[in-house]
Design a protein that fits this description.
two-stranded antiparallel ribbon; 82% helix
């Protein structure tokens, strides 16, 4: 035989529902910002830095070509019938070649970091996907269950708060129809509260996991 619900404060259910929805909104906003930050990082590495390093390689190639031309011009010239040492041109060519090698290495470094960042983003997305599912599905379900519980309990209190009257009319000895209906209403609300409580308990593990 079912017992009456022990109702202490319906407002707590409303507060819990509001807190749950607030958590869902804030968590979803945080995940959206994290996804944007991850996308910005990948764009910076894969696009901005890649373009910069490739431009540096092209610039280095031009500088090497210019340095070689200058060295060849120097070596083909004569000063008082003798070939100059062309020391400055040799140093300039060596420096240009060194910068070109460094730029080419930076291109390879950016490519490695692109792979690292893509892998890290993939791992992050895989880890937060269950939370995303809970935010989109389980929290709204839990909030809806809490709302139903609040409505049922509110109706239950309205029924049980009515003044108690005898089920039988003393003057006639016959059943009091209004009192009988109130008793039926109370029984129906008791069953509704029990059903919504069971549904809430079934959904509550998901809600707890989401939080």
């Amino acid at each position: 035989m079912s017992q009456g619900a022990q109702v202490h404060s319906i407002a707590v259910l409303s507060q819990l529902r509001a807190a749950l929805l607030k958590f869902g909104d804030e968590a979803a906003a945080a995940m959206t910002e994290m996804n944007r930050a991850a996308a910005r990082t990948l764009d910076w590495v894969a696009d901005d830095q890649a373009k910069h390093c490739k431009a540096q390689v092209r610039r280095g190639q031009d500088q090497v070509a210019a340095a070689r031309t200058a060295l060849a011009r120097c070596q083909s010239s004569k000063v008082f019938g003798q070939t100059p040492s062309c020391r400055e041109e040799q140093v300039a060519l060596a420096a240009a070649e060194r910068r070109l090698v460094e730029s080419q290495e930076m291109v390879r470094t950016v490519q490695r970091w692109r792979t690292i960042v893509e892998h890290a983003i993939g791992e992050y997305q895989g880890r937060v996907r269950p939370l995303s599912t809970k935010l989109e599905r389980d929290i709204p379900r839990a909030a809806a269950a809490l709302a139903r519980m609040g409505e049922s309990l509110d109706g239950y209190l309205r029924v049980t708060s009515r003044p108690a009257q005898a089920v039988f009319d003393p003057s006639t000895g016959s059943p009091d129809d209004a009192a009988v209906e109130r008793d039926k209403d109370k029984t129906r609300f008791d069953k509704t509260v029990e059903r919504n409580t069971e549904e809430s308990e079934a959904n509550s593990p998901n809600a707890r996991d989401a939080i």
